[in-house]
């Protein structure tokens, strides 16, 4: 499945990353006018819980994809990693919808927990999620621009391993953030 030119992978990675991160920063920064979005309070209230489930499922799918490629099952690996990317996209769309309409959720716990645990953990979660965007686009574009035999000679494996680890950490920290915001405090 060769959808893009091999030579354009870095350029397409940069373009997709800039557009994606631009949308994220626009939504978080309040640039997206809330009146443009249809408002469903039921959905808004469900999104944190849906995103926690999506994160949990994505962790399982990523680990399953990693195990599949270690067994040499390229097709299962491909399906699982694409499914994980779709889950990431769904998570992001839901998050951006909610934050565009409601803004970020305030932390309700003690200030000491906020400063010394929650905030650093949230910062690492967000930083890893931002770093993952170009890495994920890059490995996906490498995969769709080359026949399977050529992927092994590309940087897909080395970049993919880094992306998967960072992705897993980010999703895991996201679940902890959810727990602190909606379960503990």
TrEMBL record:
<feature type="transmembrane region" description="Helical">
    <location>
        <begin position="50"/>
        <end position="69"/>
    </location>
</feature>
<dbReference type="Pfam" id="PF04238">
    <property type="entry name" value="DUF420"/>
</dbReference>
<feature type="transmembrane region" description="Helical">
    <location>
        <begin position="117"/>
        <end position="144"/>
    </location>
</feature>
<keyword id="KW-0812">Transmembrane</keyword>
<protein>
    <submittedName>
        <fullName>DUF420 domain-containing protein</fullName>
    </submittedName>
</protein>
<feature type="transmembrane region" description="Helical">
    <location>
        <begin position="165"/>
        <end position="184"/>
    </location>
</feature>
<keyword id="KW-0472">Membrane</keyword>
<keyword id="KW-1133">Transmembrane helix</keyword>
<dbReference type="InterPro" id="IPR007352">
    <property type="entry name" value="DUF420"/>
</dbReference>
<feature type="transmembrane region" description="Helical">
    <location>
        <begin position="81"/>
        <end position="97"/>
    </location>
</feature>
């Amino acid at each position: 499945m060769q959808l893009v030119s091999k030579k354009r992978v870095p350029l397409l990675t940069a373009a997709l990353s800039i557009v994606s991160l631009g949308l994220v920063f626009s939504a978080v920064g309040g640039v997206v006018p809330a009146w443009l979005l249809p408002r469903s309070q039921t959905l808004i209230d469900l999104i944190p819980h849906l995103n926690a489930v999506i994160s949990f499922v994505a962790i399982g799918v990523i680990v399953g994809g990693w195990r599949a490629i270690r067994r040499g099952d390229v097709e299962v690996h491909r399906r699982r990693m694409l499914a994980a990317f779709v889950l990431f996209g769904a998570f992001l769309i839901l998050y951006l919808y909610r934050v565009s309409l409601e803004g970020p959720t305030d932390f309700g716990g003690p200030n000491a927990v906020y400063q010394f645990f929650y905030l650093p953990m949230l910062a690492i979660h967000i930083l890893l999620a931002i770093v993952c965007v170009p890495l994920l686009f890059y490995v996906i574009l490498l995969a769709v621009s080359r026949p399977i035999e050529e992927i092994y000679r590309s940087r897909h494996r080395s970049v993919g391993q880094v992306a998967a680890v960072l992705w897993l950490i980010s999703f895991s920290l996201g679940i902890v953030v959810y727990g602190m915001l909606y379960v503990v405090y």
